[in-house]
Amino acid sequence: MNNIIWIILDSCRYDTFMSAEKKYFIRVGEIHKRYSYASWTSPSHYTFLMGMIPHTSPAGVFASNVYREEFKLWNERVGGEKQLTFADFVPELNLVKRLNMLGYRTIGRVSLPVLNQKTTMSSYFDDYKLMDNHNDFKGMVDEINFLTDRPTFYFLNLGETHYPYMLQDENLPHISGVHGVFKNLDDFVIHQDDAGKYDADNFFTHPEMQRLKQQQIKTVEYCDSIFGELLKKCPDNTYFIITSDHGELFGEEGYFGHGPIMHEKVFEVPYIEGKFDRSMVK
């Protein structure tokens, strides 16, 4: 069976991923535009751990048939003789439990506090923890090791692409809440006036929005370089999924961030999957 590494670049929208210079991510496979089932971190990751990947948007189909086909794809990802069916996932709809039953060692490493080990997100993982540093994909990669007697499933949530989209927290525009008591929460709390409306004087300017978008592009490029280091550690029987949990708004129609926002850019995410090939590291 294959080792499986599922990488989630938190908050990374599709077009910023496409704008970034990528040397290693693109070696896994073709980049697709897909859509998240949710607009913020927690519900999106719960969907992933049900075994459901970001979806396409097909017309003229029954949703149940789409889900059935999505679950079948885990046969290719897992590999080997053991076959998975939709019925295998029902009623728990828990990917980690199913992989455990197939003999996988299951390891989760997350960057966002809303995914911490005290939540039910950690259920059924053999080893699951919130990283000490919000931006520590490198630390995750340093810890990764593979067994010879059983396959491993790695579930990695990367914080580098989440606000503030920097490796160091300097020279940033201030958001009330994010830099204060809510600094560790996965949302964006903008200062509001007494009427409950956004205070335009405290909202980001257009140049600041564009600077933040460029910062997210730079963090994608940084993560790509670290992914190159990960490839050097992977045995041949490794299968990759690379995606995002949701997108982000950088001023479009007056919005910033993600969460309680209905906008296509919040739901558009990049998606790549494929099996390791030794040529990926050349």
Descriptive account of the structure:
By secondary structure, this protein is α/β, with parallel strands linked by helices. It contains 9 helices and 9 strands. It has a single domain, classed as Alkaline Phosphatase, subunit A (3-Layer(aba) Sandwich). About 25% of the residues lie in helices and about 15% in strands. The strands form 2 sheets. Strands 2-9-6-1-5-3-4 form a 7-stranded mixed β-sheet. Helix 7 packs parallel to helix 8. The longest helix is centred in the C-terminal third of the chain and has 26 residues. About 10% of the residues have low confidence.
Question: What are its keywords?
Answer:
single chain; 282 residues; alpha/beta; Alkaline Phosphatase, subunit A; seven-stranded mixed beta sheet; two-stranded antiparallel sheet; 9 helices; 16% strand
